[in-house]
Structure to design on (224 residues):
């Protein structure tokens, strides 16, 4: 899940 | 959400508003690269596929929809609007999409966080966004006549990236688990591409003249 943390940006 | 991120998003949004305003008020897209606009549309479409399977916040969802709709809107104007389409510099805007799209796709297949369709497409969008401004910069160099709005458009697009870098630095220190090496590398490349443009933009601005490229 951490690797997807950038997905909360646009 | 920190202030840098919000300011970055607003700068991004503002750049798009500027371009729509320019097209709408002057009924002209002279100086704008359709190639760059098409690449940005591809960036938004491949990145925001996550609208279908993940939800972050209402803010994120609304912004994604605005970016998608506005990029298709700009393309529609440039392609189909009776007056606007006649002002498009077809002969000058010759950059080939595949020169950017193919290497980005290959790189996304090799360097990614997870080998899944959605993740590779997302990664592809990150890489492509970094270089999508190139056709626009080439067109600027070629035509040399940069009107104020086009200059401001590129300025705010560059400012958006610079603010995102501050946002990443902020998150790096405040969120221990936030590590996005791939996004950071692409973001640095993207900001670097604007360095040259920024230099001339600020120089013309200081001299109180219209932007002129050498």
């Amino acid at each position: 899940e951490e690797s997807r943390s950038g997905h909360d940006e646009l | 959400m920190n202030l840098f991120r919000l300011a970055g998003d607003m700068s991004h949004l503002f750049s798009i508003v500027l371009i729509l305003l320019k097209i709408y008020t002057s009924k002209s897209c002279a100086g704008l690269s359709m190639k760059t606009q098409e690449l940005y549309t591809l960036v938004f479409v491949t990145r925001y596929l996550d609208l279908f399977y993940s939800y972050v916040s209402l803010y994120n969802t609304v912004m994604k929809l605005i970016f998608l709709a506005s990029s298709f809107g700009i393309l529609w104007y440039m392609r189909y609007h009776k007056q606007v389409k006649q002002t498009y510099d077809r002969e000058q805007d010759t950059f080939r999409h595949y020169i950017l799209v193919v290497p980005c796709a290959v790189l996304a297949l090799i360097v990614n966080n997870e080998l899944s369709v959605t993740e590779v497409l997302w990664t592809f969008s990150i890489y492509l966004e970094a270089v999508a401004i190139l056709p626009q910069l080439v067109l600027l160099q070629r035509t040399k006549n940069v009107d104020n709005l086009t200059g401001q458009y590129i300025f705010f697009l560059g400012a958006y990236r610079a603010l995102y870098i501050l946002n990443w630095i902020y998150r790096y220190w405040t969120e221990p688990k936030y590590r996005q090496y791939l996004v950071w590398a692409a973001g640095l490349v993207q900001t670097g591409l604007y360095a040259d443009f920024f230099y001339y933009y600020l120089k013309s601005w200081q001299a109180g003249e219209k932007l002129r490229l050498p």
Summary: The mean pLDDT of chain A is 69. Chain A is about 0% helix and 0% strand. The two ends of chain A are 17 Å apart (CA to CA). The CA atoms of residues 3 and 9 of chain A lie 13 Å apart.
